[in-house]
Amino acid sequence: MGNLVQKIAIIAISTVYITACNSSTSPIARVIPSPSVSPTSQFSVTKDTPVDQLPNFISGPWITRDATIVPPNGFLKTISFNITVQNHTSGAVSDKDAAKWGEGAVRNILWEEWADKNLQLNFLSTNLADNASSGHIYTDDRAFIQKALDVHGALKVHLLVPISLSLIKVADKTNQTIAALGENPSTYAFIITSKGPQNITLNYPDGHSEILDSHSSSETFQNFIGGLYKQDPLLGNLWFINSQVNCTSAFLQTVCQ
After folding, report:
1. Is residue 20 pLDDT above 50, yes or no?
2. Contact criterion met (CB below 8 Å) for 157 and 119
3. Are 245 and 135 in contact (CB under 8 A)?
4. For the CA atoms of the chain, what is the radius of gyration?
5. Model confidence over 112-136: pLDDT tens digits?
6. Is there a domain that residue 196 lies in?
7. Whole-prediction pTM
8. Which of 73, 110, 144, 247 has its CA 20 to 30 A from that of 41?
9. What is the count of structural domains for the chain?
10. Calpha distance 101→237 (Å, rounded)
11. Is residue 28 part of a domain?
12. At what angle do helices 139-150 and 95-117 cross, to 10 degrees?
């Protein structure tokens, strides 16, 4: 099995911090462009903003994606990280593509965090994972978001940080077991190792808070993330998830090594 290693080093146009905080949703000024100028070139969204505070030509594409919040211009189009992507596909996937797919996998995690802190329940369910698999993916995230919505609260989110990615070609036997678990089979999958801390806190309207999930900085986790690379014109290139299983599962322990 090949073990070609390629470093991803991408200069961020818009730096994304893993530690998330609740964004302000103050209205921003509407700009009426002159007829000779493109509307989008005259309007800048500088922070997470509710769709009903923006003109339709800005909010429309996000509404069709089941979002109620529009992120800042260019958010996550280019991301900043430096993670080793190990290509274990024996040449079936080039090192260049493995690195590109790895970038998509990290972008997925960052969109997940954005959806959590902005309570984007429907967006999370329909844009980052295959619809047939979405019932098995992001279950904790959806539960946290729903709880915050129910009490009109807000989530403060700090997710696990990915520290290594290994791309593998999934064996037929592994896919059969994946399918038996109700997940969709994949030709390729990432083994993603992530490190704490992780903290998700629900802040209630009356000022008190509740810790919903917490992992220390000494904890690491490995997950099998099956899927496919997807070029998304709105969200940026993604690793579109169709299966997600913790590597502690007995049948995956050898696969994840």
Report:
1. no
2. no
3. no
4. 19
5. 999 999 999 999 988 998 765 556 7
6. yes
7. 0.81
8. 110
9. 1
10. 8
11. no
12. 20
